[in-house]
Write a structure and sequence with these properties.
This is Cobalamin B12-binding domain-containing protein. The chain is α/β, with parallel strands linked by helices. It has five helices and seven strands. The protein has helices at about 25-40, 50-60, 75-90, 110-115, 125-145, and strands at about 5, 10, 15-20, 40-45, 65-70, 95-100, 120. Helix 3 (about 75-90) links the parallel strand 5 (about 65-70) and strand 6.
Length: about 150
């Protein structure tokens, strides 16, 4: 069974990778985007300096299954909180949110409480991100009766 595709609709997992805020370093985001693409997913990379509104609007417009936020600036709580609130406001809470970057361990439980699915910190393996998304999206599709 190909976990990158919804067996009912033959749709591949669609992921939006975004760099919120003023942080200008996107190498990690590009590495993750490439790894997810290599794992068979459709990946939309929004580029640098995105607002939460831009990210959520793009995610809804592109009908993605997941949003990955890359935050190195220390403003992760702000951006994740805003993205989660906007997804709720737009009735798009079925979109899985995950992230990566420089995020202190003590903030991980707070992000989980916000509804963030998984956070990958420096040294994480890109295969782990692909495996996480395949499992989380497949579970979501099954719960929604799509797969």
């Amino acid at each position: 069974m190909d976990h990158n595709k919804n067996e009912t609709t033959d749709r591949r997992i669609r992921v939006l990778i975004a760099k919120p805020g003023m942080d200008g370093h996107d190498r990690g985001a590009k590495v993750v985007a490439r790894a997810l693409r290599d794992a068979g997913m459709e990946v939309i990379y929004t580029g640098l300096r995105q607002t939460a509104e831009m990210i959520v609007n793009a995610a809804v417009q592109e009908d993605v299954d997941a949003i990955g936020l890359s935050v190195l600036s220390g403003a992760h709580m702000h951006y994740f909180r805003d993205v989660m609130a906007l997804l709720k406001e737009k009735d798009a809470t079925d979109i899985i949110v995950f992230g990566g970057g420089i995020i202190p361990d003590q903030d991980l439980p707070k992000l989980k409480e916000l509804g963030v699915g998984q956070v990958f910190t420096p040294g994480a393996n890109t295969e782990d991100a692909a495996t996480y998304l395949k499992g989380a999206v497949s579970e979501r599709w099954r719960a929604q009766g799509e797969g």
